[in-house]
Amino acid sequence: MSISDIAFLEDLETIVKSRLHEAPEESYTARLAAAGTKRIAQKVGEEGVELALAATAGNKEEIVDEAADLLYHVIVLLAAQDLGLKEVCDRLRTRHSAR
């Protein structure tokens, strides 16, 4: 993973937060958020299962597609809860340093 990959995830998180705040009608992100936390959580669950199934099938392209869908929906869920990737990274860092 490169610095540009990390920057892209930060950019995506910023876009998601903007869509949640501005709620443009044409935005899938805004419509998903308007459906509520339960619906966002359902999408995270669906994408997680689809990723697991893709992994068992061994199709690398499908794995990447489903992992991308899962990451996107996790970012939406975090943003809807006023959280972000920073909090997740902080928690991972803390867990790692405890070893």
Explain what this protein looks like in three dimensions.
With 99 residues, the chain is mainly α. It has one domain (3-97): Helix Hairpins. The protein has 5 helices and no strands. It has helices at residues 3-22, 28-34, 37-57, 60-80, 85-97. Helix 1 (3-22) packs across helix 2 (28-34), helix 1 (3-22) crosses helix 4 (60-80) and helix 3 (37-57) packs antiparallel against helix 4. The chain is globular, with a radius of gyration of 15 Å. The model has no long low-confidence stretch (mean pLDDT 96).
Could you name the key traits of this structure?
99 residues; single chain; 5 helices; mainly alpha; Helix Hairpins
Tell me the layout of helices and strands.
Layout: H1 3-22, H2 28-34, H3 37-57, H4 60-80, H5 85-97
Helix pairs in contact: 1-2, 1-4, 3-4
CATH fold descriptor: Helix Hairpins
| First-to-last CA distance | 23 Å
Biggest sheet descriptor:
none
CATH class: Mainly Alpha
Instruction: Using the CA coordinates, give the radius of gyration.
Output: 15 Å
Record field, number of beta strands: 0
Helix and strand pattern: HHHHH
Arithmetic mean of pLDDT = 96
- Strand share of the residues? under 5%
Q: Structural class of the helices, strands and pairings? A: mainly alpha
Could you list the spans in which at least 5 consecutive residues all have pLDDT below 50?
Answer: none
**In the residues, how many domains can be counted?**
1
Helical proportion, percent range: over 70%
CATH architecture: Orthogonal Bundle
- How many helices? 5
CATH superfamily: MazG-like
Morphology call: globular
